[in-house]
Amino acid sequence: MEWENQTILVEFFLKGLSGYPRLELLFYVLVLIMYVVILLGNGTLILISILDSHLHTPMYFFLGNLSFLDICYTTVSIPPMLVSFLSEKKTISFSGCAVQMFLGLAMGTTECVLLGMMAFDRYVAICNPLRYSVIMSKGSYVPMAAGSWIIGVVNSTVQTGCVVQLPFCRNNVINHFTCEILAVMKLACADISGNEFIMLVATTLFIMTPLLLIIISYTLIIISILRIRSSEGRSKVFSTCSAHLTVVIIFYGTILFMYMKPKSTEILNSDDMDATDKLVSVFYGVMTPMINPLIYSLRNKDVKEAVKHLLRRKIFDK
After folding, report:
1. With contact defined as beta carbons under 8 Å apart, do 31 and 190 qualify?
2. N or C: which end of the chain has fewer CB within 10 A?
3. Other residues' Cβ atoms within 10 Å of the Cβ of residue 115
């Protein structure tokens, strides 16, 4: 794109599902229902992890943080998405886009690091149970959770700051539901190799490193489980980490599928984003936060008992 076409952009156009009004209405209803489920499910997990003394453990402290994170992430992305489905004006201001990029990237990075911390917690609980209370004391797991949030904010501040300083051209169409940082970056009238290098370093540090920690932790956990002679014992031990492992597979499976191919390059070279990419984008942004509390509640005896206890207490209070 020629430098003379450079201009000061004041807003971006989020293409999303423009041109498909019926599909937009269908997505509006589905996403709205899922958002309500997200708020109820994750809100319930936070509530029981606070009110039930049996759940005052490192694992449920991390789970409470994960639920709060999912509520924050979806509250940043879903309401604007719902508005765009019903509105003919599908634009977002430059500053609004920057805020959306910052919050989305901060929440995503925090979740990656937090899942790594939770894997380490499960490793210590299963492979070093006698030292669990010492290693995972309150003086350890609270800073671990706080560190996850700080890493997310720092990473997002650096990357978003680099993107908003780029000069942008007349092309302001983002073929996405939200301000995805790669898609926005590709609209710049400048060499973005420096930004891509920073993103590569950040991806290695904050996505692949937690994934490596998760892989190592679960490899050691599986080795430890296989050493247990009784099948009942193996099943009981595995059940304590199966929910977290399921969430990790869904989260990382989706994110790797989305970013392993140069999606944002394709956005500039085609009029329509691949339908699969859009569905995966919705799955990552909406479905994952919705099914997290369902997985933890359906596959976790402690959570189910805590919910029953909370309901009984409310009934008796009446």
Report:
1. no
2. C
3. 21
